[in-house]
């Protein structure tokens, strides 16, 4: 649910006829009448490349990890990450962008008034994005996040972005709104492939089938933006390799949320053995548990 | 003709307890009238018409003068038709139809039909147990149950005529029904029918062994109900005392008793989620009827679709879960009903019921949260085991292999319970907090795991005791007598999923 809080002192409003109104929005087929914002308004018109990252709220660990990593790497490569600060992929993309040291400032586009934080779990993320980048909304202060405002918000994300990257998305979801808005505006859409059969990746995979370019690393995005490819992050996994017996359990987790029942069947081991191994993997940062569903962690650093 | 009186022993039910009642009849000169005094309720007052009709059709005649019946003590509310027979006998003693010595030290219980048939009433066991008389006369269909009380010479008859004939020594007392007269007992479903469901099977085994309350979550059609129904078959048979106590409740609640009258297998009660507080906890107006929780005494209470129950009704379970009994107070008195049951709940992981795995459905966090919040935190906390059930795979369902039969699992359960009994408790779920450090005593790696889980915030302080008890049960099931090991703790943690993600959202 949302939290109402005092209006940030640095909040500003720009009308459409104001020269400071960002051109990408004033030239939009459906331009906002005015925008409300906190943070650096210059970011909306500074010529820096902007990539919109969108995806499912109910995402898997895979989607969260990828969104966070790409957010971090894009930001480090000097690309502003535009997203909606929703739960799941949106939030993870910005979390990643904020992790990049000296990275490009993030841009958040929200559907409610800037003094109505939604979802409330992202209160701190709102503040960080506003502080290090810019947080904007089409809705007046005090506006509650009605569901119809989200597709409207999505068109602004599409309008501000040079490229839209879809991470994990259910078919016929809010992400699809953003994609449709991007296509209508001629903004290229790219998608991160997901495991076949994963319900959370169905929408992203569908986009690939429809001809969207795949994103397997951020160089794919940078190339599409006409930017120089960045040197691949020199990445050394700091984790201790799993203990000898435990890699079998890790392999059985198979990159999708897995329940104990499935693990019992896949490994043929006893429940005690499996759970003991899982907790060792958890402690070593190889796996995480959400409501009883175990998932592998691709790279450390993700909370 | 002067007034004639007689007094006969009987008893009435309040809650599940019998209370002795003296039925006094007074036949005096005057215009024909028939009054019953001594706080009878509507059903009891209607005894006037039943007794009159029964006596007349049995050819015993009815006094055509002024008749008064008093039910003593006069401040106790008399409920139901169980006093009919005693009223009829008291009248016939007063007018000399039956000889005085024949009813000496004898109590009578039973409801009369208009044609003189004698019918059973609810709570026979408690009613008989409350009597101090040496001999008791009950309806034939209740004879087996009456004998369970054990202290009385039980006589039975199927009609008022038979009772009077026997009292006058015209005929011998009819024989009590033999075991052949009753049908076969009910079959408890076997665990061998359940295919796949590794964790689900394991969870009910642990639940049975340690007496741990169990919450099963999983999409519809995954076999939550199937598993729960097999739980009574894993529990040990009731001891004589437990069986008598459960029988008293079942009898008072008017449930059908098994052949022989004694409920010797753990009962299984599965009320619908529309149940009211009175239906679940017990109560009623005017008198107190045992609720489903008492009917599940010494057995299993299964609440399917738990999130659909009225939240306030569910919260009524909290106190009985702690105390093993419920005290119900009404304007005219309060009753203590036993209610020590194993609670098994089942619910979907989210409103759409698709799966609950991250990314598998599109229920919003808020709707999932609201769904789970229908179970209050304190109630959720009373589930030692919270296990998710996954959909069985097609090849498992089609497999001709049968699972391990209930008998084999029940044997392990019995062994684990025997170990618990050596600690002086009924089952591990009842290990008092003070005893936990000594009884559980985790090995260093197991202790480290508990500590790190506590620190990470995914285990509450309250949950810690419960996890330790479950870990002890797991060790007992494996026959590990000494300290609790790491894999016991890790499994216990996984068998008690904290809905932390939902709390945080």
Walk me through what this model shows.
The complex is a heterodimer of chains A (303) and B (505). Helices cover 36% and strands 16% of the residues of chain A. Chain A has 303 residues and is of the alpha/beta class. Chain A has two domains: 3-225, Rossmann fold (3-Layer(aba) Sandwich), CATH 3.40.50; 246-296, Winged helix-like DNA-binding domain superfamily/Winged helix DNA-binding domain (Arc Repressor Mutant, subunit A), CATH 1.10.10.10. Chain A has a nine-stranded mixed sheet, with helices on both faces. In chain A, strands 1-7 form a two-stranded antiparallel sheet. A two-stranded antiparallel ribbon of chain A has the order 12-13. In chain A, strand 4 (50-54), helix 2 and strand 5 form a beta-alpha-beta unit. The two termini of chain A are 22 Å apart. The mean pLDDT of chain A is 88. Chain B is of the alpha/beta class and 505 residues long. Chain B has three domains: 4-180, Ribosomal Protein S5, domain 2, CATH 3.30.230; 191-404, P-loop containing nucleotide triphosphate hydrolases (Rossmann fold), CATH 3.40.50.300; 431-505, Helicase, Ruva Protein, domain 3. Chain B has a five-stranded parallel sheet. Chain B has a four-stranded mixed sheet with strand order 1-2-4-3. In chain B, strands 5-8-9 form a three-stranded parallel sheet. In chain B, helix 5 (143-147) links the parallel strand 8 and strand 9 (153-157). The longest helix of chain B has 18 residues, at 461-478. Mean pLDDT of chain B is 88; it is low at 500-505. Chains A and B meet through helix 10 and helix 11 of A and helix 7, helix 21 and helix 22 of B.
Q: Which percent range describes the beta-strand content of chain A? A: 15-25%
CATH level 3 topology of the largest domain in chain A: Rossmann fold
- Domain count of chain B: 3
- The CATH class label of the largest domain in chain A is Alpha Beta
The tally of structural domains of chain A comes to: 2
Helix content of chain A: 25-40%
**Overall 3D shape of chain B:** elongated
Rg calculated over all Cα atoms of chain B: 28 Å
Largest sheet of chain B: 5 strands, parallel
Structural class of chain B: alpha/beta
